[in-house]
What we know:
Blueprint: E1 5-11, H1 18-34, E2 43-48, H2 55-65, E3 69-73, H3 80-91, E4 97-100, H4 111-120, E5 125-130, H5 138-153, E6 162-169, H6 170-176, H7 186-193, E7 197-202, H8 216-230, H9 233-261, H10 269-301, H11 313-331
Parallel strand pairs: 1-2, 1-4, 2-3, 5-7
Antiparallel strand pairs: 4-6, 5-6
Amino acid sequence: MTPILYIVIPCYNEQQVLPETAPMFLSKLTELIDSGEISNDSRVMFVNDGSRDNTWEIISALSKENEHYVGLSLSRNRGHQNALLCGLMEAKDMCDITVSIDCDGQDDINAINEMVKEYKGGCDIVYGVRNSRKKDSFFKRNTAQLFYKLLSWMGANVVYNHADYRLMSSKALNELAKFKEVNIYLRGMVPLIGFKSTSVYYERNERIAGESHYPLSKMLKLAFDGITSLSIKPMHIITTVGIVIMFLSLAGIVWSVVAYFLQQSVAGWASTIALICFFGGAQLLSIGIIGEYIGKIYMETKNRPRYIVGERTWEADEKNADNSTEVSGNEE
Length: 332
Ligand code: UDP
Ligand code: MG
């Protein structure tokens, strides 16, 4: 059976690039349909993220022009991650596979062929990974690298140099739907799903038109969301620092008492220093311990699934039975 593919594309104020990139997505889709790789029910799905320009008008016009274009519009701007999640959740019940991609033409659409091939080879998630960041500015390249290092040090499992260009099967999406958290960072959440996954590599280009919606402030927010929604390591750091300072303050207390007895201090100095040291250490340690509990509460409130079943023998049996009836059906 040829799979139904939905290419899911979040768009925010993209009236400049959409008319140029939409036909590119469509031609890739028709190429795959014509070669028999995917079903004719496949679609290019645009998610308008509360744009203030003519993006939605363009999407509506496209959907009237060709049945392979579909679109949906959010009630207001909710940001890239939310718009993308919305598109994926809408698409998952109508298709077998989704490929999420930005609408600015930066990601090479030819990688989709290889992604579909990997899916047919048994992968449920295929990450699009850029070969190099030669075309990024010096600043973006280095800050991005620093961010990946920081994330992996914090214990978050992210795929290096992978943005949100990826193939996901409806099976993987049904599991993603069980992640109930509100602060979403898809790049960090998708690897948590598991299943067989792989990466395909591509060259990332510059934006075809318009400008980036990720200025430094949004990049920092995404980075901060990434760290805080995947890891509670910052709280462990506070606790560790608290313990270290507690020990240092003990040394400080001993020192002030010794100085007092050696009469190298003015009256009242030793007791003041001892108290400052003691309370400094004790307070930081207490904050750290409270933080540990808050961290646990935070993780609990996310309501994430505790396990995800990959395969069941009895389901495999059913599938085989289905296939054999299909074959016998063809023979008739
Ligand atoms: N985007 C969105 N909502 C937003 C910001 C961006 O849906 O609030 C979309 C945007 O239209 C594009 C993708 O997210 O398809 C990535 O944005 P952009 O290309 O501006 O980011 P960059 O590639 O510069 O990181
Ligand atoms: Mg872009």
